[in-house]
Amino acid sequence: GRHGQLENMARAACIALWPKVVDPQTISELSLSTNALYTVSGILHNYEENKDQLYVLRITDPRSGRSRDDIMAECLWLESLKNDTNLVVRYPIRTNNGDLFGTHQYDNVPHQYVTLFEHVPGERLEDHLDTTTARLWGRLLAELHRHASTFSLPHHLDLIQINAAISGRQEIVLNQPGANKFISSQRAKLFGRFQHLVDAEIKSLWKQYGDPMLIHYDLHGWNVLVSKPSTSQSESNSDNQDNRHYQLAAIDFEDLVLGHRLQDVVRSLYDIRNYDNYQVLRDAFQNGYQEILPWPESNENQIQLLMLGQQLSLANFILHHWDDEEDIEEELVALEEDIEKYFTDEVSAIEDG
Description:
CATH class of the largest domain: Alpha Beta
Family: Belongs to the pseudomonas-type ThrB family.
CATH topology of the largest domain: Aminoglycoside 3'-phosphotransferase, Chain: A, domain 2
Protein name: Aminoglycoside phosphotransferase domain-containing protein
GO molecular function, one term: amino acid kinase activity
Number of helices: 10
Order of helices and strands: HEEEHEEEEHHEEHEEHHHHH
Structural class: alpha+beta
Mean pLDDT: 88
Largest sheet: 5 strands, antiparallel
Low-confidence stretches: 232-241
Strand content: 15-25%
Radius of gyration: 22 Å
Domain Aminoglycoside phosphotransferase: 54-289
Number of domains: 2
Helix content: 40-55%
Pfam families: APH (PF01636)
Strand order of the largest sheet: 1-2-3-6-5
């Protein structure tokens, strides 16, 4: 099956690309969703901590829509973050030939991009979210923005620009009546109208802030790891009492795009928008962010519209990639309900029109 095939490919890639770094016999599956992730032990023992050095191997699935340029940008940014900041990230380990990542083919599986990262410890922020960790989360995103604002990528890299509600490399079907069984003419009209509103908001944002910059665009609670550093380390690194107890690491930079800071903030907060304590967590996140950079200027309506843009983009993705019809319908109904909840006046205008 796919599991065994990918694991064999991961083992073969380790032997071919990182023969002096990892022991291919120690491969263990970490997650298998769109991409395949494995942990693998290093050849060298870490005597300081008396344990094996760990790495994370990623096989990028062609269906993920990520290009060679995307992965190159990801690896270059991570390497720069490692060299120029104290931030904790999974940085790439260069191959035996000195490349940031490799391509590998195994049996009948087509060429796929394979990247090896340094492993970082920690548990998902999602499971440890309170005002203290939310503040550090906001601070972490601002640190990434501060670095990205002065970081230059090679000009030839062609990256996705988030210059519309649904951007990227997939066809827009959300506003096409009859494009599939889920999009009635009524739905197409509703979604199309709000897609237009979000597009206009993003256009004005880009006009206001000028050239876009590199943003993580996926720094939600699953892609931030929380750990408690040792006492001596934490005391030397702490600015204040709160920082002493936690170390946050940013992972999974593969969705990076060109956009603006506010778009990255909205993407980070999107998954907690329906939490009962959302406002408290968001305030803590904003306070942490403002310790490093000014909060991206915005009004509530702007953030709400950009949140809706996230939903529209997700719904369009689901229509392309999900198979379960009940799940698809459930997501589209949730989108309609959110539109009616937050944009009552606009919905009335559409219905009257």
